[in-house]
Amino acid sequence: MTAALMLELRDLSKSFELHHQHGARLNVLRGLDLRLHAGECVVLSGASGAGKSTLLRVIYANYRPSFGAVHVRHDGRWLDLAKASPHEVLDVRRRTLGYVSQFLRVIPRVPAVDIVAEPVLQTGASPQLARQRASEMLHRLNVPERLWSLPPGTFSGGEQQRVNIARGLIVPRPILLLDEPTASLDANNRAVVAELLTEARAAGSAVLGIFHDEDMRDQIATRLFPMQALEAA
Ligand SMILES: Nc1ncnc2c1ncn2[C@@H]1O[C@H](COP(=O)(O)OP(=O)(O)OP(=O)(O)O)[C@@H](O)[C@H]1O
């Protein structure tokens, strides 16, 4: 049986208008096509500045593409995020499309365990169950228990990153976008993340990510998607 197509980019282009340079345009993505299936892990490769993060932000609808389509399978039907309403984008983000970046958005005074538990609460689960699931994730990612009840503002870079990954992976998502989520992790914790991603794929998630670490790439990528910087117009 062939795996379900989950995401399809068609003829996607993105350029930025540089307001400080008399409206010059910077072309970052041009005519890009990509298909992502359930259970795959496609890793974006290419030099710094090739547009890898921009591509993930366009898919997550942080940036609107200049041209082309971002078709996402949402609730069994196809939706073009390039044309979707803000309400539809929020619904897709809540139930279909997860995004884990390098940085945790710290909310003052909210303990780590509650930051991780929040996506579970949003599914309608009880606070007890959400906290239990959050504790399991934090434990798995080797975040010391003494930190769970503290807000992560003062945590180390790697500790914050692990809280961020725990939050990003705690609820299974049909499509997962990962922008270097393991950049500050040691080899042990990278291996845990690789394991969590393998489990997510086995459960049917389609993964698209940026990983500069070669070991990590070798462990998780089912395919590479090479990208190249374009010349400025
Ligand atoms: N909001 C923006 N406004 C203007 N230019 C931007 C914007 N976002 C990205 N760029 C430019 O787009 C190009 C691609 O950036 P991007 O961050 O996508 O590259 P990348 O491949 O992810 O690089 P790296 O591996 O260094 O993170 C860069 O030249 C960057 O300056």
TrEMBL record:
Keywords: ATP-binding, Lyase, Nucleotide-binding. One of its GO terms (molecular function) is lyase activity. Pfam families: ABC_tran. Residues 7-232 form the ABC transporter domain. InterPro entries: AAA+_ATPase, ABC_transporter-like_ATP-bd, ABC_transporter-like_CS, CP_lyase_PhnL, P-loop_NTPase. It comes from the Bacteria. Belongs to the ABC transporter superfamily. This is Phosphonate C-P lyase system protein PhnL. It comes from Dyella flava.
